[in-house]
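Predict structure. Input: Retrovirus-related Pol polyprotein from transposon RE1, 336 residues.
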Amino acid sequence: MAMDDEMSALISRGTWELVEVPPNADIVACRWVFTLKFRANRTLKWYKARLVAKGFTQTYGVDYFETFSPIACLNSIAYYFPWQSISTGRWEKQRMVCKLKKAIYGLKQSPSAWFDKFSRIIGEFGFLRCQIDHSVFVQTTKSGMVVLAVYVDDILITGSDIVGIEEAKTYLQKHFVTKDLGRPKYFLGIKIAYSKHGVSLSQRKYACDLFQEAALLGTKPKAYYDVDYAGSKDDRKSTFGYYTYVGGNLVTWSSKKQTTVARSSAEAEYQAMAHTISEILGLKNLLKELGFMYKDPVPMHCDNQAAIHIACNPIFHERTKHIEVDCNFVHEAIMS
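Output follows.
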């Protein structure tokens, strides 16, 4: 049944036409990929079958050239929830037994072809692509704005103009085969819950699935706050974490192992400070593109007095020379 549904969808969209094999053609074979789709409560939703091309047999410079296709970063996705499947792109090459009129999953150039087509069509409707996140599109209307975030072939749409949102949906449905799933309840491993108090985001289910897959459900996790200085027993590199709020909503968070060895806790804290400032500047630029001008300084909390002193002191010496790039970056951000 799932295979029949997939074939019917591909044929109804005019994905290919049967032709004789061209002379000296490099034939790209295909295969079936099967998966199970679950609801947020882990009950089976449907069986899914996907016909994909064996793109790994293609040769760069012969069968394809451009492959890059951006996707909305998780930070952008997390910002849109509080604020509030597409046919593939055309393919120009004609080297198949089934001569493709549209790209299918598995081809090296499919993501690029799809995104180029989507960008062109949505741009004709008045949407502008954000410079900070190229998979985010913004349309300014008389009543507010409409925002689209694209993750592969999934689209999140939100904004302050309800009529504009419906018009954008109608426009997309004219150009693509779409399915309106309504308010998202689960997206990219994030469970979304709505209440009169706002929107709640949780990755508990995603984390539990990872623990179960790795057979770690019986372990006792360790929690790190700020910087775990020289916590790695293998190379003594530090682990740092940060989180940011916008309008009282937690929108970005991260925990990463630093790439260099810090010789003191102050150095580890300072490098974490530089990473956090990069995140803050990115968020400010994203908000600016969405029409929210925030001119006041963004408070950043640090509990290490030595790191704070280095940040406020424009003069560096030998003990901070090896992290001078971070020092100047942080100092420049503070002074601006």
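Confidence is low (pLDDT under 50) at residues 81-88, 91-96, 220-225.
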